[in-house]
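User: I'll paste a sequence; please echo it back and then give the predicted structure.

Assistant: Echoing your sequence first, then the prediction.
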Amino acid sequence: MSKSYLAIPKGNIFKMEQDLKKYETMKYVILNDQLAVIYVNDDFEEKNLNSIKTIAWWQRSAPMSTLIEITNNVKQGQSVTIAAGTDYVYTNPYLTLSGKKNTIVIIDSGIDYSHPDFINEDGTSKIIAIWDQNLETGKSPEGIFFGTEFKRDEINKALKNKDDSLTKDTIGTGTIAAGICSGYGNKIPEFKGVAIDSELLIIKLKEYKDTYREGKINYQQSDFLAAIKYAIDIWKKQDNQMIINLTVGLRSSAIMLATFLDSFSDLKQSGIIVVGGAGNEGNTDIHYEGNVKGINDNQDIIIQVGEQINLDIVLCTTGPDKISASLISPSGELSYIIQYSPEYYLYRGRFNIEDTKYEMRFVYPWLETGNQELVINLIDIKPGIWTLRILPEYIVNGDYDIYLPNKNLISTETRFIDPNSSSTITLCATTENIITIGCYNDKTDSIWIGSSKGPVKNRMIKPDIVAPGVDIIAPFKNKSYNTATGTGVSTSVVCGVISLLLEYFKTQSFYSKISLFTETIKTYLMLGASKKDIYIYPNISSGYGKLDLKQTIIQIANNLE
């Protein structure tokens, strides 16, 4: 089943579940008391979801992509120890921190579990479980109908038998994230991770190919949210604190009231921390920002399209504004004009000369922003100059933003002709309940050019802080090492640091329970972050400054006096 939807119940979710059970063509996972994901076949007509009266809201699952770029530059790479400043902890005679009694969750491409850096001295694994969503060879996790779960005893048995075939990381980004967080450095000590005694929980996301461009792999929001449910279920069964490392991201967004992550109330509890990469869209030309002066101010936005299979274009407004739109093909054909309708309506059409089909949806108001979202899906799109014509219907503010998919999923030639690099934070990392991390380039002592920028309009400055993330050396697939760059690398560094901080808090028993919240940890990271005198903080590029482990521990110690 390759199509999936997110569904919010009307009232009790168990009543919605009873209705879903009536449909043999649907499979589903109840994520929490406010949200479920529904899986269907490709030929499913989504308008049928409107006939299920216990569903209050539904929307399509969206593609996600990794926030880690493999750079193959070990000779000029930087060790995690230097990047994170962990020498301060491991060489300080008064600190004995290594991330003990904490579990770091990696939701990415899986892990090379047989890599020496993930094996304890006694030959057992530091991984408490692996859920491979792609495999159907064994038992799925409780409450979930797909994938195969490998528990610690199965992983240990495989290691004992020198069997590395249970599950494979064929891409390597998941192994890199795990190694940065807590790799032992057993093979090469100087390449150890940040919190070497933290345990790992691994979810290998289901892979989808050729969504936008041939050969490109993406993930899906529905499977990602199922991974969050799985991690929370594991957390409830153990005593460890948990840090969830978000190294994959949805498209960028300028405005966000809440994301579907906010439906998981457990993520706001003490002892579970969520950290996410800001995104790698700082210089990728996937964002256009504009303003219309009134209902007669029609505007044309030029989009250059390279070799693509499909392409999505998303138009978002500010406040109560409504903006209609149509699309003009390279040959000059004009699509339907998509306008606001109080009822669900999916516009479908075709550009005959380009032989490109399209679907257009006008959602008002969209659940996650309270504003308009207009989505255009182009199927079998052809290269050339495409024009999005916007037609204001009702204007109070006039500001609007248009987004293309994450750049690592589309052609390098697909871009806005007049882009804007601000407000490119990945949608998952836009809310207050996540510690959002940008990427810093230690080689140039400046922000990495690809690091996504804030702000999240009408709400807050993002990212919260930045951390080193350029050419960081870490464990890689096939028991090797490699370098990687991106905000997924930076957030992995910060997750390891947070594991050390949580252990430090637990040594201060009086403050432990009140200090293990995401917001509390975020505040201390902001306080401890290093700042340059020439800049004003917070700002949309580096937030409150660059990660500084030593100063963060000092700030905590001073506050606990």
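The mean pLDDT is 94. The chain has ten helices and 30 strands.
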